[in-house]
Amino acid sequence: MTVELYHFEPNANGGKPLIALFEKGVAFESRWVDLLNWEQHQPPYLAINPKGQVPALVHDGTTITESTIMGEYIDEVFIGPSLRPGDAAGRERMRRWSRFGDEFLGPSLSMIAWSQFIAPMMKQRPQAELKKALEGVPTAERRSAWSKTIHNDFHPEELEESRRRLEASIVRLEQQLARTEWLVGTQYTLADINLFNMAAPLPIFCPLEANIERTPHLLSWITRMRERPAVVQALAYSRDSLRTL
């Protein structure tokens, strides 16, 4: 059995399969892909994922390129503690939370983070290098996203809407965690794994909205997540490329 995980920093999408693999106790080979030096757009990695996005999980010839799906695959294929509820209603709630992260919280956090951290880093690069890098992006959608970052072309209205969504996400998470220990109830699940790296930076990006006075349950959950051995192991894979939060 061979398990390879192609990943960048263990935050956001890259952290999901890392944490899941450690929670299940799965031995795997870490394959670092340096996004900031465009390795995801080079032929060796495009042979793994033609879209040029990370992470990617390869298991005995099966390749999975969607981070949320990786978690369910890892939980189903490998032995170890279950990361999914045993009942259909619980699994529906788990997937609804994961979808909330993928479609609402995650994109909003990414826009804020890329505008504040990645865009200034790109500004330091030679223009010829950036032009060549853009030409190598394999899809129009990702080329547009990278172009916006390289030129720091984030519109104020977009950033304001992203901030509004972060604030709405904080309220939703706090309300849920005031009622239940974990996002789906009493069981720790993939929903917690999938939302953790998106929620962990919220007290930094939104300190007035996410703090010990206003969101004690959210901050307690973040602390409990950080203390889990699997999360500690996953975060140890950071190379501090983004000054990981």
Describe this structure in words.
- This protein is of the alpha+beta class.
- It folds into two domains: 3-77, Glutaredoxin, CATH 3.40.30.10; 88-228, Glutathione S-transferase Yfyf (Class Pi), Chain A, domain 2.
- The protein contains eleven helices and four strands, in the order βαβαββααααααααα.
- The chain has a four-stranded mixed beta sheet with strand order 2-1-3-4.
- It starts with a strand and ends in a 10-residue tail after the last helix.
- 30% of the residues are buried.
Which structural traits does this protein have?
245 residues, globular, 58% helix, Glutathione S-transferase Yfyf (Class Pi), Chain A, domain 2, Glutaredoxin, alpha+beta, 4 strands, 2 domains, four-stranded mixed β-sheet, 7% strand
Number of folding domains? 2
The second-level CATH architecture of the largest domain is Up-down Bundle
Principal-axis shape: globular
**E-strand count:** 4
Largest sheet: 4 strands, mixed
Poorly predicted regions: none
Query: How many whole angstroms does the radius of gyration measure?
Result: 18 Å
Q: Could you give the distance between the termini?
A: 33 Å
Reading off the top of the CATH hierarchy, the class of the largest domain is best stated as Mainly Alpha
Mean pLDDT: 93
Number of helices: 11
Approximate helicity band: 55-70%
CATH topology of the largest domain: Glutathione S-transferase Yfyf (Class Pi), Chain A, domain 2
Order the strands across the largest sheet as they lie in space.
2-1-3-4
Helix-strand sequence: EHEHEEHHHHHHHHH
Strand fraction equals: 5-15%
